[in-house]
Amino acid sequence: MKLFLDTADIDEIRTVNSWGVLDGVTTNPTLFGKVKGMTYEEVLQEICGINGGPVSAEVVADDVEGMLREGRHYAKLADNIVVKVPMSENGLAAMSRFKAEGIKTNCTLIFTANQGLLAAKAGASLLSPFVGRVDDINEDGMQVIRELAEIIRFFEYDSEVLTASVRHPRHVTEAALNGSHIATLPFKVFQQMVHHPLTDKGIVQFKRDWEAARAALNDGAKEASPKREPAKVG
Ligand code: G3P
Q1: In terms of Cα–Cα distance, which of 63, 40, 47, 66 is closest to 6?
Q2: CA 228 to CA 100: how far, in whole Å?
Q3: d(C-alpha 29, C-alpha 59), whole Å
Q4: How far apart (Å, rounded) are the C-alpha atoms in residues 207 and 213?
Q5: Residue 84 among the catalytic residues
Q6: What is the end-to-end Cα distance of the chain in Å, rounded?
Q7: Are the beta carbons of 72 and 100 closer than 8 angstroms?
Q8: Residue 134 CA, ligand 1 centroid: distance in Å
Q9: Whose CA is closest to atom 9 on ligand 1?
Q10: Where are the domains positioned within the chain?
């Protein structure tokens, strides 16, 4: 399973990239809004320089021509840019045009398997159901993942399911078990996945025991070595 970071924060991307577990990055206008002092283009280029996996850049236009204009512009910034297009009638039209031009797309704001099926047929490479937001309205986000992953495999569409709106580590495990090809995670969820109270406690205990063992060894060596008599004078 591939794991992406859902952020536009360069430090977070550098950190997870250094762990050797980062397969790509997804950004959106909300995440870009948290970055200070850089244009969206500058942020995207910097991210593409850190990680060679797919980096999603989202269009905000509502009309097909506007989506195409923005998407073509982002696609020129780096080879690994994937244009993120919202699920809509115009979005489907734009995704099928991007497909014909050889520009990869990530269909965002998917909330049902049917929306994902349409995006796959329009040629989107990545299909992003938002599981957290489905859970928020008292429905089952993982059901969308399960259904869509099965449809994609059954008909052998050339698209991957990308579980988005991940809120906690359990979402990642469930996405994996339900056949999602990718999950995109906030930095905090990556960190939560690393840690376990017993792991952290175990690390402290092993270090303490190691230091105690070395101290005991040093004390033993001191006791074993003969004490020197002070030299007699006169
Ligand atoms: O990848 C989409 C994601 O950023 C949305 O997450 O938590 O705002 O629903 P959230």
Answers
A1: 47
A2: 88
A3: 9
A4: 10
A5: yes
A6: 83
A7: no
A8: 11
A9: 165
A10: 2-194
* pTM of the complete model: 0.92
Instruction: Tell me the CA–centroid distance for residue 232 and ligand 1, in Å.
Output: 82
Tens-digit pLDDT profile for residues 116-136: 999 999 999 999 999 999 999
Rounded to whole angstroms, the Cα distance separating 32 from 218 reads: 56
Q: How many CB atoms are closer than 10 A to CB 112? A: 16
* Number of H-type helices and E-type strands within the chain: 11, 8
pLDDT digits (tens, 9 = 90+) for 161-220: 999 999 999 999 999 999 999 999 999 999 999 999 999 999 999 999 999 999 999 988
CB of 183 closer than 8 Å to CB of 4: yes
Tell me which CATH code domain 2-194 carries. Answer: 3.20.20.70
Three-state DSSP state, 79: coil
Q: Do 34 and 52 touch, CB atoms closer than 8 A? A: no
The structure tokens listed for 111 are 């909330």
